Amino acid sequence: MRAIIFALFSLFFVATLTPNTAYAQNKKVDEALNQFLDTKFMKKYIEMRNEAEQTVLNFKQQASLYPPADVKTVEQGYARTQREFDKILLDIKQDLTDRKKRKFIEEFPEMYANNMSSQLDDLNDFYAENFQQPLRDVTGDQIDGSPLLLLITELIGATSELVGKYVALKIQSKKFTDGYLQENLVEPYEFKDWNDIGTNTDNGGFDNGGFDQGGGFDNGGFDQGTGTDQGGNQGGTDTNTDDWDW
Question: Rg of the chain over CA atoms, in angstroms?
């Protein structure tokens, strides 16, 4: 009888303790993501996204002035550029959930930052060729897409801070999961589709994402070699992460 009572008590204790433990772990993961989103890199990325979408909105408001074929050319250029920008977040997600990638970043942060900057520089050229130039060809000087180029340059300058945050957080792969980052990093901050910009679902404005606090790129993360990877890799607040296992 005592054994049965003890077993029941143990089950009750575990059942009451587990939710609290899970809450504490989730709170640390949320806080870690908040620190990551507060970097200059992510702030510039969001600013860059908003600038691109505002440019599209300005164009769509006067699209009736241009031949449908020209409008389609600009739309297709945006779609290609959108995919490349979104891969930035997909690469970050991959790197934050891959133990080997994080280990590489910890050991060779400067090499990783330099390579990431090089790939973002390639994205600068991609944007100019695939979206800015078609936009200029169609509209002349009516709509200027050049401010985004400056923001990309500023984004490149913020890579060292981002890499430093990678190293400082020291998060196990099981703490930042693919599903968690897809929901809280990729989906809230990715570029909107062309058809969603300026619609009722767009709410007429731009925000800083939707994380709830309470190719040069491929989907396998930023290339960590010396060349470009063309393969198929695709409450209180506890801010002390020193004791987190890397």
Answer: 22
Assess contact for 85 and 179: CB atoms under 8 A. Answer: no
In angstroms, rounded to a whole number, what is the distance separating the alpha carbons of residues 10 and 130? Answer: 63
Q: Residue written as tokens 């100019």?
A: 128
SS3 158: coil
Closest CA to 108 of 93, 90, 95, 120: 95
What does each C-alpha distance from 197 to 56, 77, 93 come to in angstroms? 7, 15, 25
Burial of 87 (0-12, 13-18, 19+ CB in 10 A): buried
Tell the burial category of 130 from Cβ atoms under 10 Å away from its Cβ (0-12, 13-18, 19+).
middle
CA distance 195 to 75: 9
Q: Along the chain (246 residues), what's the average pLDDT of each consecutive run of 10 residues?
A: 50 44 58 87 92 94 95 96 93 87 87 90 92 93 78 86 79 72 94 89 46 41 47 42 40
pTM, two decimals, is 0.70
- Strand, helix or coil at 131? helix
Distance CA 99, CA 80 (A): 30
Residue spans of alpha helices (H) in the chain: 2-37, 40-61, 68-97, 99-107, 109-127, 133-139, 147-157, 159-169, 178-181, 187-189
